[in-house]
Write a structure and sequence with these properties.
This protein has 22 helices and no strands. By secondary structure, the chain is mainly alpha-helical. It has one domain: Growth Hormone, Chain: A (Up-down Bundle). It starts with a helix and ends with a helix. Mean pLDDT is about 85; it is low at about 1-25.
Amino acid sequence: MSHTDAKSGERAKAADEIEPSNVQQDPWPWNRYSQRDRRVFMFVLFFVGAINYADRNVIGVLLEQIKTEFHVSDTTLGLLSGISFALIYATLGIPVARWADRGDRKIVITLCLSVWSLMTALCGFAMTFWQLAAARFGVGAGEAGAIPPGQSLLADYYPPDQRARAIGVFMMSSTAGYALGLVLGGFVAQHYGWRAAFVTFGLSGLVLVPLTHLTLKEPRRAPQFARPLENVESTVGAIYALLAKPAYRNILGAMVLLFFISYGSLVFIVSLMIRVHGMNVAQAGALYGAISAVGGVIGAVGGGALADRLAARDIAWLSRVAAGGLIVSVPLYELALWSSNPVLMAPLFLVATVVLTSVAPPAFSAIHVVCGSSRRALAIALVYFFANLFGLGLGPVVAGALSDTLAVDYGPGEGLRRALMIVTGVLLPAGWLMWRAGQFLKENAES
C-alpha cells in the first residue's frame, strides 16, 4: 500500500477524536465523518442496494408463472429478464454517473429509488407480455442511478485501507436483495400470484425514499471538496482516461463475463430446481434464496477482509483474490448443476456462491485504486454499462436459447441443466483477465 494510503488510514482512525472545526479543514473527505456516521450511511445505502437487487431479481422466481400466463418460450423469458432491463440500465448508467460525479449523489440516489420502485409496482398491473417488458424498461431506467453513486459515496466515506471491506458489506446488499426477491417473491407468488409480488416490492422501495433523502450526506457540499466547473473533466475525456489503463480494461472484461453468469444465466436456477428436482415455486425460491443469502454474506465479507489484508503488502492482491474466486467457482458450479440429488446439490451451490461472491469487493476496490477521485461513479457505471449490456443482457438470452435448443433432444429440464453447465465455463477467461489486471494496478494507481 502507498505511503499516502497509509497516512489516510491513520487519519481515519483519529477521525472520532478530531474537533468538528478541525475536521472541516481536513483535505480527506472521509475524515469529516465518525465511525458512527459511517455506520448510519452504510445502513441506509445497504437497504437501498437490497431493494435495488430485490426489484431487479424477483422476476427470476416469477418466470414460470409468467411463462404459463403469457405462453412464451424460454428465449422470450430470457429477453424479459435480461435485455429489456439491461438495455435501458446500461444506456442511462453513464449520463447518470456523470451527474453523480458532478452533483449531489444523495439527490441522484433518492430520485432513482423513487423511479424504479414505482415502475416495479407497475409491473404488477401489466395486462400483456409487452406491457410487462415496457415496465421492466422503467425499472432499468431507475436502477441505473443506484450502485455507481452509492459506491462513489462510500469511497468518500471510508479511507482507502477500509474500502474493500466497506464495499464488501455494501455488496452484501445484492445478496440480501437477491435472497429477499427469491424467498419473499416466491412466497407471495405461490399464495397471491406474480402480480402481487411486483406490487409488494415496489411499495417497499417507495417507503425507503424519505429515509434515504434525510439521512445521506454529500461531502462535496464542504467548500474544500468543491471543484470549479472549468476544471471538471469532460465525459469523453474521462472515459478515454479510464480505458487507457490496462488494469481497468482487464477488470472491465472480467466483470462482463462475471455478469454473464451471476446476473445473467443463473436467473434460471430456480426454474432448474422446479423442472429437474420437482420443487414448487415457493420451495425453490426459499432454497436458492437461503443459499444466496448465506453464501453471499460469507463471500462478500470474507472476500473484502482477505483482500484488504493481502493488499496491505501488495495492492495487486485485490485483483488476485478476485481472480481466484472466478476460477475456483467453475468446478463447484458444474458439480452442483450436474447433481441429481437435492441434498448434494444445495451445499455445492452454497460453496460455489461463497466463492463467486468473494469476487466483487476486491474487484470494485481495485477499480477505485485506478479510477481517480473525480471519476468514481463513472468508472463503476462504465463497468455496469458493458457488464449489464453484454453480461446481464445476453446471459439469460444465450442460456434460454441454448436451453430451448437442447430441450428438443433432452427435454426441458435436462436441456436447461446442460445449457447452464456450458455457459458457466466463461468464468475461466474472466479469472485470467482479473489476474492480468493485477500486473498493472501499481502503475495505474491514481489518487
